[in-house]
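pinging the channel bc i need a second pair of eyes. not urgent but kinda urgent?? the chain im working w is below, pasted from the shared doc
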Amino acid sequence: MPIRPICLTDWSSIMTIQAQCYVELTPESLSVMQSKWLASPATCVVFEQAQQVLAYALVHPWTPGDAPSLAIEITTQDVNSWYLHDMAIAPNAQGLGIGKQLLTHILNQGRALDIDGIGLVAVQDAHSYWLQQGFKPHATSTKLTQSLSSYPANACYLYLTLA
Protein backbone atom coordinates (compact mmCIF):
# COMPACT_ATOMS: atom_id res chain seq x y z
CA MET A 1 0.00 0.00 0.00
CA PRO A 2 1.42 3.42 -0.87
CA ILE A 3 0.25 4.89 2.48
CA ARG A 4 2.84 4.83 5.22
CA PRO A 5 3.80 6.78 8.35
CA ILE A 6 5.69 10.02 7.81
CA CYS A 7 9.46 9.85 8.21
CA LEU A 8 11.91 12.70 8.69
CA THR A 9 12.96 12.77 5.03
CA ASP A 10 9.35 13.45 3.91
CA TRP A 11 9.14 16.96 5.34
CA SER A 12 10.52 18.82 2.34
CA SER A 13 7.82 17.27 0.13
CA ILE A 14 5.12 17.87 2.74
CA MET A 15 6.02 21.55 3.06
CA THR A 16 6.00 21.94 -0.74
CA ILE A 17 2.57 20.33 -1.01
CA GLN A 18 1.24 22.52 1.81
CA ALA A 19 2.44 25.68 0.04
CA GLN A 20 0.91 24.55 -3.27
CA CYS A 21 -2.47 23.64 -1.77
CA TYR A 22 -3.25 26.31 0.81
CA VAL A 23 -3.54 29.58 -1.06
CA GLU A 24 -6.09 31.26 1.24
CA LEU A 25 -3.95 31.04 4.37
CA THR A 26 -0.36 31.45 5.36
CA PRO A 27 1.37 28.05 5.33
CA GLU A 28 2.29 26.80 8.77
CA SER A 29 5.94 26.57 9.72
CA LEU A 30 7.89 23.34 9.73
CA SER A 31 7.99 23.28 13.55
CA VAL A 32 4.22 23.72 13.79
CA MET A 33 3.58 21.00 11.22
CA GLN A 34 6.04 18.64 12.87
CA SER A 35 4.42 19.19 16.28
CA LYS A 36 1.33 17.38 14.95
CA TRP A 37 3.51 14.49 13.80
CA LEU A 38 5.42 14.36 17.08
CA ALA A 39 2.13 14.28 19.00
CA SER A 40 1.02 11.16 17.10
CA PRO A 41 3.56 9.73 14.64
CA ALA A 42 1.54 6.57 13.98
CA THR A 43 -1.45 8.53 12.64
CA CYS A 44 0.42 11.01 10.43
CA VAL A 45 0.89 9.50 6.99
CA VAL A 46 1.99 10.13 3.43
CA PHE A 47 0.82 8.68 0.15
CA GLU A 48 3.91 7.72 -1.84
CA GLN A 49 4.16 6.46 -5.38
CA ALA A 50 7.35 5.76 -7.33
CA GLN A 51 9.35 7.14 -4.38
CA GLN A 52 7.52 10.48 -4.59
CA VAL A 53 5.32 11.86 -1.81
CA LEU A 54 2.06 12.91 -3.49
CA ALA A 55 -0.06 13.63 -0.41
CA TYR A 56 -0.05 13.70 3.35
CA ALA A 57 -2.42 13.68 6.31
CA LEU A 58 -1.67 14.97 9.80
CA VAL A 59 -3.95 13.37 12.38
CA HIS A 60 -3.55 13.61 16.15
CA PRO A 61 -5.54 13.24 19.35
CA TRP A 62 -7.63 16.31 20.20
CA THR A 63 -10.69 17.19 22.21
CA PRO A 64 -13.92 16.69 20.25
CA GLY A 65 -15.70 19.94 19.46
CA ASP A 66 -12.44 21.90 19.47
CA ALA A 67 -9.65 22.67 17.01
CA PRO A 68 -6.10 23.82 17.59
CA SER A 69 -5.40 27.35 16.42
CA LEU A 70 -3.34 27.64 13.26
CA ALA A 71 0.39 28.35 13.53
CA ILE A 72 0.55 27.03 17.11
CA GLU A 73 2.69 24.07 18.09
CA ILE A 74 0.66 21.43 19.89
CA THR A 75 1.44 18.89 22.57
CA THR A 76 -0.01 15.43 23.10
CA GLN A 77 -3.52 15.17 24.50
CA ASP A 78 -4.90 12.13 26.27
CA VAL A 79 -8.33 11.92 24.62
CA ASN A 80 -10.14 9.28 22.58
CA SER A 81 -10.88 11.55 19.64
CA TRP A 82 -8.75 12.64 16.71
CA TYR A 83 -8.31 15.84 14.80
CA LEU A 84 -7.55 15.73 11.07
CA HIS A 85 -5.38 18.81 11.02
CA ASP A 86 -4.41 18.64 7.40
CA MET A 87 -4.89 16.44 4.37
CA ALA A 88 -3.35 17.77 1.17
CA ILE A 89 -2.71 16.29 -2.25
CA ALA A 90 -0.12 17.68 -4.66
CA PRO A 91 -1.83 19.51 -7.55
CA ASN A 92 -0.39 17.08 -10.11
CA ALA A 93 -1.94 14.13 -8.20
CA GLN A 94 -5.43 15.53 -7.60
CA GLY A 95 -8.34 13.66 -9.13
CA LEU A 96 -6.65 10.25 -8.78
CA GLY A 97 -8.63 9.12 -5.71
CA ILE A 98 -5.74 9.63 -3.31
CA GLY A 99 -7.86 11.68 -0.90
CA LYS A 100 -10.42 8.89 -0.62
CA GLN A 101 -7.64 6.35 -0.01
CA LEU A 102 -6.10 8.51 2.72
CA LEU A 103 -9.44 9.12 4.41
CA THR A 104 -10.34 5.42 4.26
CA HIS A 105 -6.98 4.58 5.83
CA ILE A 106 -7.53 7.11 8.63
CA LEU A 107 -11.10 5.95 9.32
CA ASN A 108 -10.08 2.28 9.34
CA GLN A 109 -7.22 3.04 11.71
CA GLY A 110 -9.56 5.02 13.98
CA ARG A 111 -12.15 2.25 14.05
CA ALA A 112 -9.47 -0.39 14.74
CA LEU A 113 -8.28 1.68 17.72
CA ASP A 114 -11.87 2.33 18.89
CA ILE A 115 -11.57 6.11 18.49
CA ASP A 116 -14.81 7.98 19.25
CA GLY A 117 -14.59 10.29 16.25
CA ILE A 118 -12.60 12.73 14.14
CA GLY A 119 -12.91 16.51 13.94
CA LEU A 120 -11.55 18.88 11.31
CA VAL A 121 -11.80 22.46 10.10
CA ALA A 122 -12.88 22.75 6.48
CA VAL A 123 -11.17 25.60 4.61
CA GLN A 124 -11.04 26.85 1.02
CA ASP A 125 -14.61 25.77 0.22
CA ALA A 126 -13.95 22.13 1.17
CA HIS A 127 -17.04 22.08 3.42
CA SER A 128 -19.21 20.20 0.89
CA TYR A 129 -16.50 17.57 0.27
CA TRP A 130 -16.30 16.76 3.98
CA LEU A 131 -20.09 16.65 4.33
CA GLN A 132 -20.14 14.08 1.50
CA GLN A 133 -17.66 12.01 3.51
CA GLY A 134 -20.06 11.88 6.48
CA PHE A 135 -18.70 14.72 8.60
CA LYS A 136 -21.36 16.88 10.25
CA PRO A 137 -21.45 20.42 11.68
CA HIS A 138 -20.78 20.52 15.40
CA ALA A 139 -21.99 22.93 18.06
CA THR A 140 -19.64 25.88 18.52
CA SER A 141 -18.15 26.74 21.91
CA THR A 142 -16.34 29.87 23.03
CA LYS A 143 -13.04 27.97 22.87
CA LEU A 144 -13.75 26.70 19.34
CA THR A 145 -14.79 30.17 18.17
CA GLN A 146 -11.49 31.52 19.46
CA SER A 147 -9.53 28.79 17.66
CA LEU A 148 -11.47 29.32 14.43
CA SER A 149 -10.51 33.01 14.45
CA SER A 150 -7.03 31.94 13.31
CA TYR A 151 -8.51 30.33 10.16
CA PRO A 152 -9.90 32.03 7.02
CA ALA A 153 -13.37 33.56 7.42
CA ASN A 154 -15.25 30.69 5.74
CA ALA A 155 -13.69 27.95 7.90
CA CYS A 156 -16.05 25.62 9.74
CA TYR A 157 -15.60 22.81 12.24
CA LEU A 158 -17.02 19.39 11.34
CA TYR A 159 -17.03 16.09 13.23
CA LEU A 160 -17.49 12.45 12.24
CA THR A 161 -18.56 10.02 14.94
CA LEU A 162 -16.88 6.62 14.65
CA ALA A 163 -18.02 4.86 17.82
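so The CA atoms of residues 58 and 85 lie 5 Å apart. and The chain is about 30% helix and 25% strand. — does that match what u expected or am i reading it wrong
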